[in-house]
Design goal:
Layout lengths: L14 H13 L7 E7 L2 E10 L4 H14 L6 E3 L3 E4 L1 H11 L1 H8 L7 H23 L5 H38 L7 H11 L4 H24 L7 H39 L2 H7 L4 H39 L4 H11 L2 H27 L5 H33 L2
Parallel strand pairs: 2-3, 2-4
Antiparallel strand pairs: 1-2
Length: 409
């Protein structure tokens, strides 16, 4: 219920009391113009209200209250309502706007000539005004510095929770793997091969094509730079060294993070939304053993194989550029490759593949278990799985590269 000049809603609890007041107004069609004046009594200055303080006389009330506020301010000691004919929320709001908190103080005493219905109406006006004032304070925007610090704190707290959840989930998977390792009856061989087909065999074309093109690009860049120094032959070393140690495993892991981690999250998240995981728990089955371990084992097998394919295809792409642009024969390319590149570079590249595979698999599965059941939650956690996987892969690869460099490997 709203009127011009009264923008605050009337609480539902006082509507029955106000109904009597409005009924009295409807049964008394004769109206008097509103007025107010001061009289001096032993208790001090008393404000006398008279006439109809209703919406029909809103403009006249506004004019009189403005004049009184300019001449005397809002300083009555008491209010006499005995000459008041009617009052509605519009009149009550104008009176509150003029007197402010003083009106509540006066009403808390024994008001003269004020019926219970009209007292309830004025109390409702005061309550609604205070509620509006508190709401305005609550929605006030904080200063930018505090907001920035709050967002930084929230981001750090979220990151800490993700790290804690990831470490805890790693412990759960290690425990489940140790529990089932010596119990062949619990092995999910069929599930492992099914996941292996999706994560390894179906990913071979995209891995081979991408690494082949990146190998060709690296060879083009190397040839462009090294030819100016008369050392174009070292393009072979550049391509083979970079793909054996870094590019093959890193590109493969990033592709698997975007392809496989998102698939794991979407699959487990859909099962979580359909309450299939809860059904497994109700039947006494462990979702980690049934759903997580086959995916982890499959990716532990798939990523090293795909990394090896990426190494071969990347070197073939570099070889093609060397043959076409630098007049280096395939025989010369392989001879220099065998002479200058040591086997340890291949080993160092392959060592990182199982680590990346495990991290990608547990992040994808963990985000799948975090899905709440809605489509929005599924999309958010799928995106989070991809972002976290790519970030952790690059971070671990950078740490490993620095470690290998310090060790002289």
């Amino acid at each position: 219920m709203q009127y011009p000049g009264f923008t605050n809603p009337i609480p539902a609890a006082v509507l029955p009391d106000l109904a009597g007041c409005f009924a009295c107004n409807a049964l008394n069609p004769a109206t008097r113009p509103p007025s107010l004046h001061y009289v001096t009594t032993p208790s001090g200055n008393t404000l006398v209200l008279a006439g109809d303080w209703t919406l029909d006389h809103f403009n006249e009330l506004s004019r009189q209250l403005t004049a009184q506020k300019a001449s005397r301010g809002a300083s009555p000691d008491a209010i006499d309502f005995s000459e008041l004919d009617t009052i509605d929320t519009a009149g009550g709001q104008l009176l509150h706007d003029w007197l402010g908190k003083r009106l509540d103080v006066i009403l808390s005493a024994t008001p003269n000539g004020l019926s219970p219905e009209r007292l309830a109406l004025l109390k409702a006006v005061i309550q609604a005004a205070e509620l509006s004032s508190n709401t305005d304070v609550a929605v006030r925007r904080p200063d930018p510095a505090r907001e920035i610090l709050g967002r930084i704190g929230a981001a750090l707290e979220t990151t800490w929770k993700q790290v804690r959840d990831l470490l805890g989930f790693m412990g759960v998977t290690f425990e489940a793997l140790a529990r089932t390792m010596f119990r062949p009856s619990t092995w999910r061989v069929t599930a492992v091969f099914a996941q292996l087909e999706q994560t390894a065999f179906n990913a071979v074309p995209i891995i081979a094509l991408l690494t082949f093109m990146v190998g060709a690009v690296v060879a083009f860049l190397g040839a462009t730079i090294l030819t100016g120094f008369g050392a174009s032959i070292y393009t072979i070393n550049l391509v083979t060294f970079s793909f054996l140690r870094e590019f093959a495993v890193l590109l493969t892991a990033i592709l698997m993070a975007g392809r496989t981690a998102s698939a794991f999250t979407a699959q487990l998240g859909a099962m979580k939304g359909n309450e299939e995981i809860d059904a497994l728990r109700m039947t006494g089955l462990d979702p980690v053993v049934l759903l997580v371990l086959p995916r982890i084992i499959a990716l532990l097998i798939a990523l090293p194989l795909l990394t090896f394919i990426g190494m071969v295809c990347g070197i073939l792409g570099g070889m093609l550029v060397c043959v076409m642009s630098l007049d280096i024969s395939p025989t010369m390319f392989m001879s220099i490759f065998q002479r200058d590149i040591q086997i340890r570079h291949f080993v160092l590249g392959m060592v990182k593949a199982p680590i990346f595979a495990y991290l990608i698999a547990i992040i994808g599965c963990l985000e799948g278990f975090k899905v709440k059941g809605s489509a929005q939650s599924l999309g958010e956690h799928t995106t989070s799985a991809v972002v976290q996987s790519i970030f952790i892969v690059i971070l671990v690869d950078a740490v490993a590269a620095m470690f290998f460099m310090e060790m002289g490997w």
